[in-house]
Design goal:
This protein is mainly beta. Helices cover about 5% and strands about 45% of the residues. It has a single domain (about 20-40, about 65-150), classed as Hcp1-like (Pnp Oxidase, Chain A, Roll).
């Protein structure tokens, strides 16, 4: 009798990346692609003058977070990106938490990225081609002040 895989551990295979959800504040939005979920610790190079080593010491510095880019299809009457960007007024903007969750087969979050104080910095509309056969895609680039990652 063939093995049907029911006794297989859930830790054998990595998670697929195509099943995810994005929440802006309390609203859920559908996206085709999310990229830029990265954190970097800047390095500080230091060498004191009487060091017997002829090399520098490297220490961790401030954390740096990349901008997040999200892409989605263009729908008639959907102006959420533009409405959020139009709220920018002389150094003020509505900053919202953004939660990006990688989901398992049951639709439950397994890995969660939470952005703190996110706001839009750039919106790119779709390109237009008279001979094209693709869906119209728009993208938004958002900046944030912190990224936490939780793997459940």
């Amino acid at each position: 009798m063939a093995d049907d895989g029911s006794k297989q551990s859930t830790n054998v295979w990595p998670l697929p990346k195509f099943y995810f959800q994005v929440k802006w504040d309390k609203n859920e939005m559908s996206f085709q692609e999310v990229s830029g979920l990265d954190i970097q610790s800047e390095e500080i190079k230091y060498r004191h003058g009487n060091s017997p080593q002829f090399s520098v010491i490297k220490m961790p510095g401030m954390k740096k977070f990349g901008n997040i880019t999200m892409k989605k299809g263009v729908f008639k009457g959907d102006n959420k990106f533009w409405d959020w960007l139009n709220q920018i007024k002389l150094n003020t903007i509505k900053r919202v938490p953004v939660t990006i969750s990688l989901l398992d087969e049951a639709g439950k979050p397994t890995m969660v990225w939470t952005l703190t104080n996110a706001w839009p910095t750039k919106i790119s509309s779709t390109d237009l081609k008279s001979e094209g056969n693709e869906v119209a895609i728009e993208s938004i680039e958002i900046v944030h002040e912190g990224l936490t990652i939780e793997n459940k």
